[in-house]
Specification:
The chain has 399 residues and is an alpha/beta fold. The chain is 50% helix and 12% strand.
Length: 399
């Protein structure tokens, strides 16, 4: 009999709790830092979180500089510009505060400062030659899990591509998770980032690289998110729901960092690079349709997911369980205001084959999908998710 064996990778130090942002200056000092570059975005700055962080850091006797030009689905040049500023101010610690985009830029800056070059030079797997500056990340959304992943994702507007820097050197030295920072999220961002995290949990659970231990993280994340996302959307000041959502996002991040994701993510990437559709919105549109495609090859996993959703699965045939999971995903999207389609966000029908070709090139998630998926399959899924109505894309400005 073969014994239990696994490898688990994650951020070395995680501090979770209400008000945890107050420990940011202590964290910088523990890493030997004196000059800090804070990386954030305009939305985080607008609601006062950036200024609050800067006050905490300066109150700890640190020199602080701010790069706040991060945008959703950050282009490669944003990372390059932030790295240039870090060099100019001689930063010795990078602190990223915000959604996934701000944290990804911060992680990339840390390795660009010490390794040189540009973001584009390191997109791929294990292309970063050596360790970067120490980095701390502070999420303000419960969705991306970037605080515990080895990836920083950037779009390339010129090439119409989107890809990650994937390296163990991108794991932050410290992640500070403060549920109170997510209270300022508007309902639509709460919904889309929350469903992004739910997608991480599901795809890491059913993917080929899932292990016994990653499934523990995935299933726990599903339970937390599924049981709290409606509360967080409908009652934004519900700190208990916010806390559980952030915890669920964190667990899903650990799972995806170790077990990967699947076709939902592969198909979402071109939507970001071609149309600048926010990642969470793209995932939320595609998730039920990809799950419908996958359902016949992971019946046991679908039963586990159905159980999380409150379904009585013991006496139910597998095909019915799977169908209920897909139906519940559509229903959940309706409850949290994400009943949108690709056409609502400006996707052009005639470009679907081009999108499918680009999705196939996102090879790691494609290979990790539990069911072999072809270009024709991807075209069919995009077509099913297309729809015909209008939707306000600007509602997804990142906070």
């Amino acid at each position: 009999m073969i014994g239990l064996e696994f490898v688990l990778r994650m951020t070395p130090h995680v501090r979770f709790g209400r008000g945890a942002i107050k420990y940011a200056a202590d964290g910088v000092k523990e890493l030997g830092g004196k000059r800090v570059l804070v990386v954030s975005d305009r939305g985080v700055q607008k609601v006062g979180i950036t200024d609050r962080l800067v006050d905490i850091l300066r109150g700890g006797g640190l020199d602080v500089f701010v790069f706040s030009d991060v945008v959703p689905e950050p282009p490669v040049y944003v990372g390059d510009n932030a790295a240039s500023m870090a060099k100019e101010v001689d930063a010795d610690v990078i602190v990223g505060v915000g959604g996934g985009s701000a944290m990804d830029v911060a992680k990339a800056v840390a390795v660009l400062v010490t390794n040189g070059g540009k973001v584009e030079d390191y997109q791929g797997v294990n292309k970063v030659p050596s360790r970067g500056l120490p980095k701390i990340v502070i999420p303000t959304t419960a969705g991306t899990g970037c605080e515990v992943t080895w990836t920083a994702v950037f779009s390339n507007p010129e090439k119409k591509t989107k890809g990650g820097i994937n390296s163990p050197y991108l794991y932050p030295e410290l992640a500070i998770l403060d549920p109170e920072l997510t209270l300022s999220l508007p309902p639509l961002i709460t919904a889309s980032t929350g469903l992004d995290a739910f997608t991480h949990a599901i795809e890491s659970y059913i993917g080929k690289a899932a292990t016994t231990i990653t499934k523990l993280f995935s299933i726990s994340a599903m339970e937390l998110i599924y049981n709290n996302i409606v509360k967080a959307v409908q009652s934004p000041d519900n700190i208990e729901a916010r806390e559980k959502m952030l915890y669920g996002s964190f667990l899903a991040g650990v799972a995806l960092s170790n077990a990967g994701v699947g076709a939902v993510h592969a198909m979402a990437y071109p939507l970001g690079s071609f149309y600048n559709i926010p990642h969470g919105a793209a995932n939320s549109i595609l998730l039920p349709y990809v799950m419908e495609f996958n359902k016949d090859v992971c019946v046991d996993e679908f039963k586990d997911i159905a159980y999380v959703m409150g379904e009585k699965v013991d006496m139910m045939p597998g095909w019915e369980v799977a169908g209920n999971v897909v139906d519940n995903l559509h229903l959940l999207k309706d409850k949290i205001g994400l009943n949108m389609t690709l056409s609502m966000l400006g996707v052009e029908w005639e470009r679907i084959p081009e999108l499918a070709e680009a999705a196939l090139k996102v090879d790691r998630p494609i290979a990790n999908n539990p069911r072999l998926i072809t270009k024709d399959d991807i075209i069919s899924i995009y077509e099913e998710a297309y729809g015909v109505e209008d939707f306000e894309e600007e509602d997804f400005e990142e906070v």
